[in-house]
Each structure stands twice: as C-alpha cells, then as structure tokens.
Amino acid sequence: MIDIHNHILPGLDDGAASIEEALQMAAISEADGVSTVVATPHVIAGLYDNTRQQIQKAVGFFNSILSEKGSLLQVLPGAEYRLEPDLPQRLCEGQLMTLNDTGRYLLIELPLVFVPDYTEELLYEIQLQGVIPILAHPERNPELGRNPGLLLSLVQRGVLAQVTAGSLLGNFGRTAKRAAYKMFETGQAQVVASDAHSARRRSPALTAAAREIGIRWGAAFVQDVFSTYPRRIVDGEPVEPILQEPETGFLGRMFRSFSR
Q1: DSSP 127-177
Q2: Looking at the DSSP assignment, which residues form a beta bridge with residue 80?
Q3: Which one, 30, 52, 62, 94, has least CB within 10 Å?
Q4: Calpha distance 183→52 (Å, rounded)
Q5: What tens digit of pLDDT does each residue of 13-41 get?
Q6: Could you tell me the sign of the dihedral formed by the alpha carbons of 26, 32, 38, 39, in that order?
Q7: What is the tally of structural domains in the chain?
Q8: pTM value?
Q9: Is the dihedral of CA 46, 52, 55, 58 positive or negative?
Q10: Is the pLDDT of residue 256 over 70?
Q11: What pLDDT digit, counting tens, does each position of 129-157 carry?
Q12: Structural domain of residue 89, as residue ranges?
C-alpha cells in the first residue's frame, strides 16, 4: 500500500511530536504493509509556513535515519495546503511542493466546516497550470456532506478526492463515515490515505479500513484505492475518476445494503 497523506515529519506541524514518534509511525506503516509514505505537513499561512526547501530537507534527514535503522519504508516529499486565495499564484512562482515533487498533483484541504465561494475558481486556476488538485478528506467537510453535488461538480472537472482511512471506520463520526462510503460509491473519491498525526490516536495503519472496503467491494477495489491509484499519483501518472449513479450497479446495491 501507498499512503499519500501522512504527517510523519516531526516538528513541522501538529503531526509527529518527535523523531521517536515519527519512527514509531514509520514502524506501524511498515508492519501494516505500507511501502511508501508521502510526508504531507500542513502549510497554512501564519500557522505552518513550511517551504519546499524545509520539507525537502526534513524528508532527506528522516530517510537517512530510517536507513540507519534498517527500515525499508520510503518517505517522499509532499505537503497539505489550505485553500487560500493566493495558492495559484504561489504555485506559479514555484513555491509549492506537489506530491513527490512531480509537478502533477497538489494535496489541498478546504476549511473545516465550509466550502469557500472561490473554491471552484481557484482549483481551476491550479488546473490551468497543469496541476491536478486532490481534495484531502472531503467526507469530513459538513457542507460537502450536505451537498454532494458540490464535490461531484469538482470531480467532473478533473479534481480528485482522498478519503481518510479513519472515516471509513467511523473514527470521525457517523456522518463522515456515511459520506466517505457515498463518495466511493459514486466514484467521487479515488484514494484512501491515513492522514496520520501520531503513533496512537491517529495512527498510520490502513489495514482495518482496507478490510472494510474489501468486504463490501472486493479485492480489486482495495487494490485500486490503496495501491494502484496512489502509485499513479506519486509517479505523476493519470488517474481517471469513474463517476456513476449512486443507485445503480454493483456498488449501488452494496451501498444501499450498508446504509440500511
């Protein structure tokens, strides 16, 4: 498995609090069957002002420690950017760290409880630069949950969406869990990642969520959302959403059964 959203780098945000905890998180990921982690520290103006250079340096340093410890886990550079009005301009100026620094995919989080009026316009401006936005944990945004047409409209325009593993297990509440399954059901979400922040409370383990997905939709679907699509993302290759009507087909029947 490949985890494209993980706050494993210590001291850059509200993720790992120390090198020791970061190493614990790495050990959990490796034992859980994860081969590659993208380190995605928050970048929020005035709160976490992490630069590309700081992230690259931190990733290089942490990989050297992992190597010394004999770990086979590969940590790649990335970031999680808050959607801010100047984000397209910062991208144009080369300030932003895309996932694995390929220049292809940018991980973006919306504000916690609403969708700004300028969301569609800013994401489109980013796409005009040849970069594909990936929305982090949309299932946890109440406005997207109440109005699924908002995310559908964005995905129809080429935006991707990443669901948090913990949401699939109910760790963020029933509403987020229902929204997460619905987003996969309709093809609006394409990837599962841990969004890990610690070794315990929000750990990087993915297997339990993969098991839940597998029970409902089978091994091939698990392979897609935990491995195939994340690999394409870190390699900078295309990922094509497959949108479908929520009440039709195999996934529709399975979702109706789960929702009862």
Answers
A1: HTTT-EEEEE-GGG-HHHHH-HHHHHHHHHTT-EEEEEHHHHTTTT-HHHH
A2: 42, 107
A3: 94
A4: 31
A5: 999 999 999 999 999 999 999 999 999 99
A6: negative
A7: 1
A8: 0.93
A9: negative
A10: no
A11: 999 999 999 999 999 988 989 999 999 99
A12: 2-259
